[in-house]
Amino acid sequence: MIADGRQAGPDRRTRRARHIVWLAASCLFVAAVAGEACAARPITVAGAASLTDAFEELGRHASGQTRVEFSFAGSQTLRTQLEHGAGFDVIALADSTPMNALARAKLIDAPQELARSRMVLVAPVRTRAVRSIADLGRPGVRVLLAVSAAPAGRYADRVLANIGADRALGENLRRAIEANVVSREADVRAVLAKVALGEADAGIVYATDVEGAKGRVRVVEIPDRLNVDATYWIATVRGNAGPEAAAFVRFALGPEGRAILARHGFRH
Amino acid sequence: MSDPGRGRREGLAPLLAASLPLALFTALPLLALALRPDPAHWLAQLGSEAARRALALTLITSTVSTLLCIALGLPVAYLLARYRFRGRAALDVLVDLPIAIPPVVAGLALLLAFGREGWFGRFLAPAGVRLPFTTAAVVLAQVTIAAPFFVRAARAGFESVDVRLEQAAWTLGAGRWRAFWTVAVPLARPSLIAGALLAWARALSEFGATMMFAGNLPGKTQTLALAVMSLMESDIDTALAVSALSLLLALVALTAARLVARSWRGTGP
Predict the structure, then answer these.
(1) Which tens digit of pLDDT belongs to each residue from B15-37?
(2) Which of A79, A97, A184, A216 is the best substitution to test chain B (most B C-beta atoms within 10 A)?
(3) Sign of CA dihedral B91, B96, B100, B102
(4) Which of B133, B229, B234 sits opposite A183 (nearest CB)?
(5) Which end of chain B offers a freer environment for a tag, N or C, measured as fewer CB atoms within 10 Å?
């Protein structure tokens, strides 16, 4: 009996400890779930990846009573998700093409122009390989672009086409750059992240993307004659969106929203 | 084969009914995918440049990865099955870890380790070895994600081999090395092959780690899964055809694994 008791002692203690761990874990889980469930229904804003920082600030300032939740991804992904019934209330994409397609399909209300941006080159701060657009074609330079399905990838393709058509730069440079492209990333933020990690020598991203990677990437401007005018569009989703969604769009397009977007480098 | 559960019929109907939701839940989306493109159109799409290059790259890389999984996984599986040593539990967890972490995280870890500025990558770079954004990186990503599936199956296979058979081989003068190849491996073969096919199936479908570590370039690192992602907007028909094709490959791999496992079961050495 005594021997049993001695053996049972630590055993019982470990069992009690295990119970406490289980209890604590369950409480945390229940609290987290309950917290989510009790809060008022938030509106969901689907935003192009390049709008991430600006929209998060918009969300903090816009939310009076309503909570705003964001879903950031490549514009092509968000468009596909909405076409297949994703429960967004507001959608903002980085190109007019997918927005017009959604409007034609009567999935969203009339899109309104939200902001403009342009493309820049980014390169890791520690490397010196790329100082101008012509350097992109030098042998061994590793260039990243977004996938052509994403607006940023289409804009990058257009910049390359402009380089090919340019008298001073020309078709040979365009071809050399295309040969240097090592990957087409899923969205523009992935391009930026891998350049910031130093795994590529350069990438083409929105001027407005760079802020989040300050200190890790250098910006090389793309001359205006080669650049593109990237437009962002915003709309409420049909059928789903309530007055809060319309209020968010109004806020984003209003003076306060414009100021926030301008602070993140967007133009109007 | 005296399986007490075999041949029993009572209770079958309610269990079948209870299994229906999961079966339907899995089968319906796959059916929707398989039946969406009409077959003639489908084949035409598969003839497209993007689809052909993605298919070839996927078949080559997944086969190389499977061979690597076997070469690297066999010693680990045998070690875990046969020996008790310090750190065994840690090794066990380590081997299973890639199953539990998101593949994107595994890819990011690979990038931080073998990238140009990574722990090992910075020593590889001066030697002219660059891994990220290469076909080798695709293989590495697939091996990382698929190896646990081979090791788990191979280990179970070795554990089911009676250790006394190997001991008999030793006493008959065979070295450990020879006994391993002539006794343990042949007896564990069904599990080894099933494990290899599972690893192959997993390598075929790898997306996250590949996207992160190897990037996405047609003909070089764009496997079937990445091609689907890239084609989604520009060419939805090809995206659907490529999706259906990966479904077909997965069916082939898993059916082959089952057939192999069954053909060896109960027949003995």
Answers:
(1) 999 999 999 988 888 888 777 76
(2) A184
(3) positive
(4) B133
(5) N
Nearest to A148 by CA among B237, B234, B243: B234
A76 vs B contacts (CB less than 8 Å): 232-233
Structure tokens at A245: 């969604």
Mark out chain A residues that contact chain B at CB-CB < 8 A.
76-77, 79-80, 98, 142, 144, 147-149, 181-186, 194, 197-200
List, for residues A190-223, the tens digit of each pLDDT value: 999 999 988 999 999 999 888 778 788 999 999 9
- Give the span between the Cα atoms of B214 and B216, in whole angstroms: 7
Strand partners, A45: A70, A90
Whether the Cβ atoms of residue B58 and residue B66 lie closer than 8 Å to each other: no
Of A29, A71, A78, A198, nearest to B232 (Cα)? A78
pLDDT > 60? residue B157? yes
Q: Which residue of B has its CA nearest to A153?
A: B230
Is the ipTM above a cut-off of 0.85? no
SS3 A161: helix
List the structure tokens of B100. Answer: 């539990």
